[in-house]
Amino acid sequence: MTQIPSATVTRLIAYLRILTALREQGVERTASDDLAREAHVSAFQVRKDLAYFGRFGTRGAGYLVASLERELQRILGLNRPWNAAIIGMGRLGSALADYPNISDYGFALKVAFDTDPKKIGTTVGGLEVHDMRNLARVVKANAIDIGLLTVPREAAQAATESLAEAGVYGILNFSPVILDAPEGVHIESVDFLAGLKRVSYYLHADQEESDPQAVAG
Amino acid sequence: MTQIPSATVTRLIAYLRILTALREQGVERTASDDLAREAHVSAFQVRKDLAYFGRFGTRGAGYLVASLERELQRILGLNRPWNAAIIGMGRLGSALADYPNISDYGFALKVAFDTDPKKIGTTVGGLEVHDMRNLARVVKANAIDIGLLTVPREAAQAATESLAEAGVYGILNFSPVILDAPEGVHIESVDFLAGLKRVSYYLHADQEESDPQAVAG
DNA sequence: ATATGTGAATTGATTCACAGCG
DNA sequence: CGCTGTGAATCAATTCACATAT
Questions:
Q1: Predicted structure pTM score
Q2: B71 Cα to chain A: minimum distance (Å)
Q3: Of A86, A188, A97, whose CA–CA distance to A142 is shortest?
Q4: Which nucleotide, over all strands, has the C1' atom closest to the CA of A45?
Q5: A78, B197: Cβ pair inside 8 Å?
Q6: CB-CB contact of A9 with A50 (8 Å)
Q7: Exposure winner among A21, B3, B187, B188, fewest CB in 10 A?
Q8: What is the pLDDT along chain A (217 residues), one digit of tens a residue?
């Protein structure tokens, strides 16, 4: 199959959320227009995105909400359980450990890791904190698929490699660094400092637009 | 000027981080190759991204680390202070309130808001928690530029509109919803549940690739 | 000699228009 | 007749090649 655009994957996740909300509101049918309006994209885009994976609608009638929701879950791999571990139990790791929505769609937080002897052996948000040195063993025992990487930036690359060696092929990276992905490992980054800087750029750009003499020089 | 690609803005932030790290290591000069390798893009891409904003290098010699770092800060609007407020002092808002790196590059957390009477009047991570009903007044008194939106998803759209009315034109949204941006407001989203689902998609896609009969049916 | 800066070529994604099906 | 599904057209972003400056 031709490679799916990364932007399409992001939009499928948005469509899925919209469908879930529609189903919860008791709506049974929808159309590419509706999804487009809610997702802030064009109806062409919605249909093209779906067309990469198959035909899910009925011409003239649109889509069945519940059935398209299931299809998107299947496409996104959300119709099976994923076991996750938190790597780094600082403030962010601890906040994730008891974030309620994380168990949506079968993501199960199983264990946590840290290097700090004061944390190892404690339980945070229901998760036992293990020694990083036992990563490989504990990952195997718990069949961990995904690592949530919340270590300080200096430790992020080494932790990534340890995860890869332990057989964890999916990483959600929260630290503000560009990681080298080991062979076969997929890394997604959630970088709020970068988001903040993007906001800065656009605010700044808007101001220059309304204040043109500042551009000169 | 032609519109800068959004991907370029993201990459400029990456280049800036690399330059800061190089400067801290005492490196004085660099080249588009170096930046490209570190940022995981092509050297063409680095030069094209920079060319949108001017000429910053010396032919044959490359770039001066400190001076290109300053230029990127200026381009991204990071050479001036930005005042930020946290909207919603749940777990995530509280974690942000005492996240140390947030004051990098002149982002200053000034105040927080919540609707819960038990939280209003308290101080979390050095931030006084105000009543959401006083948003407009407190935003003005503190010259808030950016709102970090950490309210539950049901409250996110209303909070966005309150912020816009109060004159806050930059929002970093942490809640897993697609917000309608009011006129003149720039919204960036940091959505870790979406990141997790992207990881799911790619792990799942890799498995189907190595297990082709699963595709049929 | 070397690495930038940039117009031209290419690739890829989005938009469009309409054929196809219910 | 309405709305999906899709090849063709358009638009945008990336890649390339090389002229240019030091």
A1: 0.95
A2: 13
A3: A86
A4: C14
A5: yes
A6: no
A7: B3
A8: 578 999 999 999 999 999 999 999 999 999 999 999 999 999 999 999 999 999 999 999 999 999 999 999 999 999 999 999 999 999 999 999 988 888 877 899 999 999 999 999 999 999 999 999 999 999 999 999 999 999 999 999 999 999 999 999 999 999 999 999 999 999 999 999 999 999 999 999 998 877 765 543 3
